[in-house]
């Protein structure tokens, strides 16, 4: 009699070749952990060792179970969930539906790597079995000619709750090598070279690995199953790196949401999953951590939300929320079942929908941005069976319900976009047993049952659009009204942003022009030029023969001087726009403008005006010309009055024109509203007159009445609301004018706009600080670990160098360069002792040494001389080095930057005077507009500067009872001095 024989490569075809990718393979092992009643399943991938570790804390296996179940294909142990639960379910845990059916899911390991070390330990009640260990090389299953009967895999056990070390694993691998060498002799035509070479390279120490990873362990009282896979499939590293570089979820999207705790459920996760990627041995990143998948809060933020049950006849009944309004017990029937029970069975569905345009969304801006990012990466309709995800449903590129295809045919008709949906269809094995998964885990078999499930769901989405979101939808009024309202608010916001943006832009340009002129001393030059002209004219007038003509000419010269001075004054005056909130930068510039304007008035314009009057008097007295002071003063006063009257009349004319235009627009708006309403009433009357009421039923008559009333109500309500908004605006203006209120609606708008601008800027700054902090934390962690490793290896290299004279020069050179780097790192130890620090006496000599050591190279590179006074060297202050040292570093670093471009000798001076450190340089002076701003968060004149150094320095010093300020400088064009005020030097 003949018998079937099985080649070893059948295992490879059933396992590795059936699984689509490494993510799906890991998902299969997650399912096995779920069936083993694990509470946790964790994956760790070490890039440096190309080692993949998968651990769970499930019920594990005894040696007999491992040999008779795990190593046997197509086992029947999971076919009967009841018997499986009866035999293996821990007493304290609820029953779980068993995911594995065919007994081949474990073969997915072959796709993850060519070799696996399996460690498993069973827990049955309170009894723990010995640890079972087996090493398998999957490459044996890909070699032609080998039969399954040819392959033997040694299995060993360890008792006492201990783990094997590297030597014990090496011995186990050697047993496998011996077996492979025997196969080489038996099948000389087969090539076992790769298998043997990889076995020789195996270096696994489970004991050391368990100490490193901590958490799930098979030592002591631990149980479960662990897989140590080496070398891991290179595609695993490639996919993870691609995901990290592209900021997508191409790899992890198949692992996210493995267990359902979000959609159509109120239960907690039956099993927690984790995938930690270790780019180095010091830091890791959990690719599927909490918050990466959709949450209950995300559903609450949805603009449209649907949840309900679909019964055995395909009928939906549930809740539909459109923005804030809920429609309970909404029913959608499926009319293709002909009254028969469906083949697919009853199930539930829950999903949220986020509007594609932010202006049409009711979600908070932060929530909208966060959920939109998730939608781009992992949005879609998922499928869960008994709480476990079925692949590949839910991926963004698998629109299994053809939602996007229909939307492309008519966006307003079908409404839903697959890219904006996040939700799930929830099935159970008990109710939906006829839905069968494919062997390769590529979804359900596309049979009649699956097609019916799809048809019911596709009909549901089409009918939801028809009921709520189309123009003629029966329940579409609220959606249209709310969407229109959101659009109106967004348009108003954009219009205002455009208006105030233009005004801010114009103000910024005017201030920049003002400061450019004042920094170039243009106002002083203009006044000097006017002074020369006036002086020459008065001098010429004083020499005239006719005294009356001379007096007239002198007075005319004075008037001309005052007129020209007024023009110069006006050219440097800037009107601040009303009702516009200013950014922090604009607020700083406006305050600086006011200070500079006051300086010009007190130091330039007013003195010149007095000078003109004095010059007139002196020249008149010298030439003995009589000046009629009454006439002179009256002329000057009349000139001021005339100028002001012109301004008032101009503004009054503009106000009258604005009032006239406003009245015209308001009247036109009212007339148009009345006319539109009359037109709709007339149209209804015409339609009503043409309506045939013969033999009409009362119900139909009522429907006609409601239709006509709805048309009238819709136009009437819209126009009433529109006219009401206009009336309220005009009333508000009138009330403010009548009450002569000092604070009008524009002032209130300006105050709110300013607060909004400040909050936006603070949010942006805080976000940058958070990102910067996270980056610094990661870099610091990596850097410190790297330095420790180099120090350790240098010590080892030193031992070799002492034993080998040829290595000494190389070692000395490496050691010297590293010591130079290490010395720079040690300079920052005062900055890293903030938790264990103490107040100490800080000597000026120590600060001098610290600064010179840190900046010596840069001082030489930029040819900067550091001058330190004896007072600074002798100074002593009690404080924290970790607070004061960074301030010196920051200020001197800034000084080096600003000094490097000046042509003269570059000098930085450190001094101590009156309980204050003085740090000076002869670089560019700090502009008056920046004196206050330089200590504010986010302000910087450095290209690419973050504006954090001086802000943090001042804040840190104030916390310790000290302060940081800009000292007054004798020169306004050159040099800057910062003073660190110590407690004794602070004003009480």
Explain how this protein is built.
The protein is of the alpha+beta class and 988 residues long. An 8-stranded mixed β-sheet has the order 7-6-3-8-2-1-9-10, sandwiched between helices. α16 (522-542) runs parallel beside α18 (584-622), α19 (629-690) runs antiparallel to α20 (698-739) and α25 packs antiparallel against α26. The radius of gyration is 42 Å and the shape is flat. Mean pLDDT is 82; it is low at 827-836.
Itemize the secondary structure elements and their pairings:
Blueprint: H1 9-14, H2 22-35, E1 40-46, E2 51-56, H3 63-70, H4 81-88, H5 109-112, E3 115-121, E4 123-124, E5 127-128, E6 131-137, E7 155-158, H6 166-186, H7 193-200, H8 206-213, E8 224-229, H9 234-246, E9 272-278, E10 285-286, H10 296-300, E11 304-310, E12 316-322, E13 325-332, E14 347-353, H11 365-378, E15 380-385, E16 388-389, H12 403-409, H13 411-414, E17 421-427, H14 448-469, H15 477-519, H16 522-542, H17 547-571, H18 584-622, H19 629-690, H20 698-739, H21 745-803, H22 808-826, E18 840-843, H23 844-861, E19 864-868, H24 870-874, E20 876-879, H25 881-899, E21 906-912, E22 916-924, H26 949-959, E23 963-966, E24 974-981
Parallel strand pairs: 1-9, 15-17, 19-21
Antiparallel strand pairs: 1-2, 2-8, 3-6, 3-8, 4-5, 6-7, 9-10, 11-12, 11-14, 12-13, 14-17, 15-16, 18-20, 21-22, 22-24, 23-24
Helix pairs in contact: 6-7, 15-18, 16-17, 16-18, 17-18, 17-19, 19-20, 21-22, 23-25, 25-26
